[in-house]
């Protein structure tokens, strides 16, 4: 099995941890391996009990071999920040989730620093990789991230400092209901094809939109066709 793929869960946060961790563990059980998890670090105003639970679960995931990535700062944009035309379009398309989209150099750097600082409050070492929410960045973000992290990704590729890996994101979040079956079929075709190193990415909303049974079946299909790898493996 020469072809490889990434198996990822995005949007783990202090707000959804009690449900999301169970989803993550069930995907990993079907894959027969830990997976990569993209974590939203904003824990401000979280109740103390929720924060303690979140921190404990992150430590447990790390101890069990899961790979954690920093996933933005708040995963929601601050309306007061100026953006270019494309950034405003990205916010409209993503329901205000593309917080890094269309920012200038200074605002992008400031927001990235805030995300790193919030990660520090979790008591964890900084992860090796960064994923902008909804994969929307700006003209400055990739360079800024690669000065601080080993990996950066957008919707079509994973970047190291001196390497670009063709890696389309096979994701279902935010798609119209009528297109979900087509998206799942397309994901299966991409996983069957020998081209690239795709990322099969699930979000908490997918468990309602397409259901856990389909998610687990897609995971089974993926591991039957390709070898799962982590970012640390490339």
Short descriptors:
234 residues, 17% strand, 4-stranded mixed beta sheet, TIM Barrel, 6-stranded parallel beta sheet
Any overview of this molecule?
The chain has helices at 17-31, 48-63, 85-94, 105-120, 141-146, 180-192, 206-225, and strands at residues 4-12, 36-39, 67-70, 129-130, 151-153, 157-160, 163-166, 169-171, 199-202, 227-229. By secondary structure, it is an alpha/beta fold. The protein has one domain: TIM Barrel (Alpha-Beta Barrel). Strands 1, 2, 3, 8, 9 and 10 form a six-stranded parallel sheet that branches. It has a four-stranded mixed sheet with strand order 4-5-6-7. Strand 4 (129-130), helix 5 (141-146) and strand 5 form a beta-alpha-beta unit. It is globular and about 45 Å long. The two termini are 17 Å apart. The mean pLDDT is 95.
């Amino acid at each position: 099995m020469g072809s490889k793929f990434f198996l990822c869960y995005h949007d783990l946060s202090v707000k959804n941890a009690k449900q999301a961790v169970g989803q993550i563990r069930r995907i990993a059980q079907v894959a027969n391996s830990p997976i990569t998890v993209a974590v939203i670090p904003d824990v401000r105003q979280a109740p103390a009990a929720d924060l303690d639970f979140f921190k404990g679960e992150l430590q447990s995931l790390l101890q069990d071999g899961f790979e954690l990535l920093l996933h933005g700062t708040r995963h929601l944009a601050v309306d007061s920040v100026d953006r270019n035309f494309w950034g405003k379009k990205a916010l409209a398309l993503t329901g205000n989730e593309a917080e890094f989209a269309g920012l200038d150099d200074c605002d992008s750097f400031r927001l990235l620093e805030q995300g790193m600082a919030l990660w520090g409050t979790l008591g964890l070492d900084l992860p090796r990789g960064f994923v902008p929410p909804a994969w929307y960045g700006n003209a400055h973000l990739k360079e800024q991230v690669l000065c601080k992290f080993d990996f950066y990704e957008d919707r079509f590729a994973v970047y190291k400092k001196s390497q670009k890996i063709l890696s389309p994101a096979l994701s279902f979040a935010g798609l119209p209901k009528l297109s979900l079956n087509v998206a799942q079929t397309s994901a299966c075709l991409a996983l069957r094809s020998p081209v690239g190193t795709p990322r099969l990415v699930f979000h908490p909303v997918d468990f309602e939109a397409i259901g856990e049974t389909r998610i687990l079946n897609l995971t089974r299909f993926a591991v039957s066709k390709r070898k799962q790898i982590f970012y640390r493996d490339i």
